[in-house]
Write a structure and sequence with these properties.
Blueprint: H1 5-14, H2 20-27, H3 34-43, H4 49-60, H5 84-97, E1 103-106, H6 113-122, E2 131-135, H7 141-149, H8 166-169, E3 174-178, H9 185-197, E4 199-200, E5 209-210, E6 214-219, H10 223-228, H11 234-240, E7 243-246, H12 257-272, H13 287-293, H14 299-312, H15 326-329, H16 365-379, H17 384-391, H18 395-405, H19 410-420
Parallel strand pairs: 1-6, 1-7, 2-3, 3-6
Antiparallel strand pairs: 4-5
Length: about 425
Amino acid sequence: MQMTIQSVLRILLEKAYISRRQYRVLQSEHFKNIDALKELLLGEKVLDPPDWREIEPLLQSGRDDHDSPVPGTEESDPPESRNPRMHEIQQTAMRVASSDTTVLLLGESGVGKSRLARLMHLASHRRSGPLITVACGSIPETLLESELFGVEKGAYTGASSSRPGRFQRAHGGTIFLDEIGELGPPLQVKLLRVLQERKVEPLGSSEEVEVDIRLIAATNRNLEADVRAGRFREDLYYRLNVVPLTLPPLRERPEDILPLVDFFLEQFSRKNGQRYRLEYENPQNPIAEILSAYTWPGNIRELENCLERLTVLSPDGSIQSAHLPPRIRGQVQRAPVPIRENPAVREQPIVNDEESRDSTEFPTMREMERRHILEALHNSRGNVRQAARLLDIHRNTLTRKLDDFDIDAGQFKRRRENSRA
């Protein structure tokens, strides 16, 4: 029996070759066949050739028992924000969703820009059309032009057939350009032309193709500063900045933490067939207090990944503070947030006894990010690809961060080899 694209994607997810977010993005694409999927995964470095060789026996076996949706991968609507600022942003997003106005989502990584873009698409008149997501920073620049605008047969060595770009695939729907600040100058020029004329010119073609799309873009960069520094075109910035929405980081809306905890636990409950619960009134297990107090430098994405870890370590469904990573348990609670307005919960500092210090100073955001990266490299034994998956970021992004923090991933491999000696 010939396996379907859905079957292959489910195998990749179950074997942890792709994340749930990548699974959802790939589901929205339209692949002619499995070879087209393979070309994309290898071309964008989502998989290495050895990875694909490992799963090929499963694909060649002809088993097609993976057509049902993956539990927990269906997108559910997150709870409405209790934070006045975020609530107003959500309301504005829904008001402009019905139009074709270009929207620029701003904010730190992990604040929920992709999820908001999806909700805007579903609330628009284009909801029956495709939602095509492009992570601009995750695709090598040499491949990004053909990926966005398409390629004609013979345009370059290896282009054995014509292939539509993401803009053409998004015809009649929405295209979401994530990490748009990572686009280089040549692609900025081509994107500006597309926005002005609503036409794309595939690589190697002299003919333009009309596209009917709605554009939503997102970035965690300061585009105004990039414009002043000459890194981003001013005219493109004004084309994108029609309706700018800046999503606040999770640390600035602590009242949203526990509703999001309940939301994600419900998703994991459906996925794993196990009911997970948070004990809000157990002084011996101050899990809710700790989650509310932590500053979440990775924002909602970090919270979701943390809760996934907790569910894996909680076979009986009771989420325990002892299973939290040390970096979270060890952080002192500065300004406690009332937990469900329960007077039984005392507002006292939470400190990890093993790591308690005389100093009450908090690490900077940069220090926290560095710790996360080091922990991921330790757990992956220096494997950068696996560490990137643990952090839920692309390997190219992690490589840049390793250079930025001057971290040598090889030292973790050498430690492992030395321990064997």
